[in-house]
Automatic annotation (TrEMBL):
Keywords: Cell membrane, Lipoprotein, Membrane, Palmitate, Phosphate transport, Signal, Transport
Listed InterPro entries: PBP_domain (IPR024370), Phos-bd (IPR011862), Phosphate_ABC_transporter (IPR050811)
The protein's name: Phosphate-binding protein
Known function: Part of the ABC transporter complex PstSACB involved in phosphate import.
CDD domains, A to Z: PBP2_phosphate_like_2
Localization terms from the record: Cell membrane
Pfam families documented for this protein: PBP_like_2 (PF12849)
GO CC list: plasma membrane
Signal peptide from the UniProt entry: 1-20
Record-annotated PBP domain positions: 45-291
GO biological process: phosphate ion transport
Organism, as annotated: Psychrobacillus vulpis
Cell membrane keyword on record: yes
Subunit-level organization: The complex is composed of two ATP-binding proteins (PstB), two transmembrane proteins (PstC and PstA) and a solute-binding protein (PstS).
Length: 322
């Protein structure tokens, strides 16, 4: 999934070619420029040292992992660690004061805000990308192409029955459906719970995991399986999974950004502790780098970038915290 390296290398090569072209053009000039004008010092990035810690959503993780890796090449004396314990788990650590930022695939809940206030932690919300929560089935599933939200509710809500494909459509196999879902600490679970389950109980036979790769492997290994997770995880495994349309719409960059892929399009967030930005130059610098590069990194790993105005607003908000 780390194809952001290719994008960055392409950019670097293009820049090198452009510089080379400029250099060749300058050799044809006969007028000499005074040394005082040519020897302008190059702007250098200030070297920082420090530690920055974050935790949270497995959905946001691919974006942050890409950013952390590239940031290390810019500030190799800043140690950035990012755990993946799910959105809820990330907020727990954020509330406990053990992290500087929390990655989230849903907005922060009121009760989490209250706990942060009680702990004396002020925070700022930043949007970093769009995601389209993707329903997938096994490649050998030839009968499912599209499901409605009502179909999903009938399948995924616990009602005491054994769920079979034929319950959804009599023409489908009389086989039991095998379910794979993010765990209850996941923001993806919370979002699915809100827009599909309507806060009813998830089917009890579902296999739950905070690790989206476990869900991917589960669906890959069973013809009767269905699962859901972030769009990037589908794209990374699209050769071995089949995506299901929802209300007749397939998740794509265009349908996610436009909101046509409804109701499963959603923004992704990073929540930052204000005091960490003010007191730790490394935290400010890393968050600035994150907002400056989140759009490109989101696209590189399989999500959808926000409009530039959103990133500009985020940078202005960050600057206001200093």
């Amino acid at each position: 999934m780390k194809n952001w390296k290719y994008l960055l290398m392409t950019t670097m090569v293009g820049s090198a070619l452009a510089l080379g072209a400029c250099g060749n053009a300058s050799t044809s000039e006969t007028t000499e420029t005074p040394a005082a004008e040519t020897e302008k010092p190059q702007e250098e990035t200030a070297v920082l040292e420090g530690k920055v810690a974050g935790d949270g959503s497995s959905t946001v993780a691919p974006i942050m992992e890409a950013i952390v890796e590239e940031y290390a090449a810019v500030q190799n004396k800043v140690q950035v660690t990012v755990g993946v314990s799910g959105t809820g788990g990330g907020f727990e650590k954020f509330i406990a004061g053990s992290t500087d930022f929390a990655n989230a695939s849903r907005p922060i809940k009121d009760e989490e805000k209250e706990k942060l206030a009680a702990a004396g932690i002020d925070f700022t919300e930043f949007k970093v990308a769009y995601d389209g929560l993707s329903l997938v089935v096994n490649k050998d599933n030839t009968w499912v192409d599209s499901l409605t939200v009502e179909d999903l509710k009938k399948m995924w809500v616990e009602d005491g029955s054994v769920k079979k494909w034929s319950d959804i459509n009599p023409e489908w196999p009389d086989e039991e459906i095998v379910f794979y879902s993010p765990g209850t600490d996941s923001g993806t679970y919370d979002y699915f719970d809100e827009v599909v389950l309507d806060e009813a109980d998830l089917v009890k036979t579902a296999t739950l995991s905070e690790d989206d790769n476990v869900l991917v492997q589960g669906v890959q290994g069973d013809k009767n399986a269905i699962g859901y997770f972030g769009y990037a995880y589908y794209l990374a495994n699209k050769d071995t999974l089949k995506v299901v349309k929802v209300e007749g719409v397939e998740p794509t960059n265009e349908t996610i950004e436009s909101g046509e892929y409804s109701p499963l399009s959603r923004p992704l967030f990073v929540y930052v502790k204000n005091s960490a930005v003010k007191e730790n130059p490394a935290t400010y610098d890393f968050m600035k780098y994150t907002l400056e590069n989140a759009g490109d990194m989101a696209e590189a790993v399989g999500y959808v970038k926000l409009p530039d105005a959103d990133y500009d607003k985020g940078l202005a908000d960050l600057e206001g915290l200093k």
